[in-house]
């Protein structure tokens, strides 16, 4: 057997993770023996994205506002200047301009959704977006089960109670699934079945809409990300190496809900804990939680059991979701025992979503959070990442053009 990763560590000049938390996991767990041999070989180089494409190109209206308030366009090349937006976070004039730009971007997505899916959604609802590769560890399943719980609650309430408890939301999904990845395809099928039921329920109206955007690609992302208000980065802690879409969303003034995983950890540090919705188990707890499950000691939250029962009742059509729901049950075995801890994090997730609703009702507070996300995103420019690689790994100097 040839262990390629071990071979790379031995032969490589440097070894790095792409976010601080995973660089630590590499040192403490994955390659601990090698780290003890060559500690200086191990580094961290947190990923980045380019503000030229992910603000300037895809969000020209917000770009103009940033340039106006900073008094310069230098932020496009020197992303650190975005941090200066913090001094204007409570300015009412900036709030007005910021909200207009966000709504105009949302109107573009309203048209995109109508064109791609036929669904009509309200631009006045919160745009809650999860777009990324469909994979169990990224937990689109946790998101859609949270939506099912929300829908079930709404159905059990009067119209007045619904409007008092919930803010209107458009829950948008997008992403690719490998053709051979059966569970991913089940999740996509489930999302579209929930959408077909919820979106055609006259009792619910614009209070909740669910949309899966087909044929997701960069062009679709360039429309969705500027329009986003809440974005979900909810992977099982310890499983997302970094993520870069979380950086793109934050740059565009989107507030994140997520676990302490990948670059979420550093984004939360930069934008401020009060401007990030945190939930879920921590990375160092995951192995113990899986052992607890294997020992038959895990007791699921009654609301989680309630949601699975609701899905199995046929509320979302005739398709048999026994395999999908069954993957969240049992204590061990391949494709069972909820390896990605959806059930464990479910109560924490729905509690956090209640905090989201409460925060969104206070639009002054929400807009401030949005501005501070853009201001705190400066660290996540690929310029910074490339300079760190050049200086600390490649040992090369930049060539200055005459």
Automatic annotation (TrEMBL):
Keywords annotated in UniProt: Glycosyltransferase, Transferase
Protein name per UniProt: Starch phosphorylase protein
EC number: 2.4.1.1
